[in-house]
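I have been asked to look over a protein record a colleague put together. This is what I was given:
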Amino acid sequence: MQVMQKLTDDIYKRLFVTSDTHFNHNQEFIYKQRGYDNPQQMTDDMIDIINSTVGEDGILLHLGDFCLNTTKEQYDDIISRLKIKEIWMLWGNHNNPIQKNYGGTVEQVCAYNRNVFIKYLGHYFTFRKGKNAFVCFHFPIQIWDGMNEGSMHLCGHSHGHNVISRPESGTEKILDCGWDIHKKPLTMSEIEAIMSVKVINSLHHA
């Protein structure tokens, strides 16, 4: 089991979460469903939204499926246009070209221009701030570590189609942080507010 990282107040306040951006994905069921005419328009707009939301001192926790149909050079270009401090990257089910070029170790830090740093965290990441504990994984999990004690599960993958992980679902402290639902990265305060109305299902015993 991975050791749960304890975040400082400063990092927690600067942390934003998203998933399934699918930069450059050239399938109409992705970019047209989001209201764009083509994948380049989608990519450009998402970059602008991330920059204006996260900010130059912010940290973006990305829960997987960062991009598709993307070369290493195109990936590097997207990263170079993100005017933020750090990206914490989890693997999804669509990882190339990232994992092929940078995924040799479980955690690896790569520096890009504009002082953007990327931490590749592998598939699974847990962190804590005070009494709030979070289990992060690309896929929604039915039972996760500490869920009966109020641990919260942050995921993606479902593009809003998994009813239980949607923000309006009152059962289970699980949240789909994907772009198709929220249209932007979420602050930890926004995540806490959504989770506060979800209940702990006592039928599960982790």
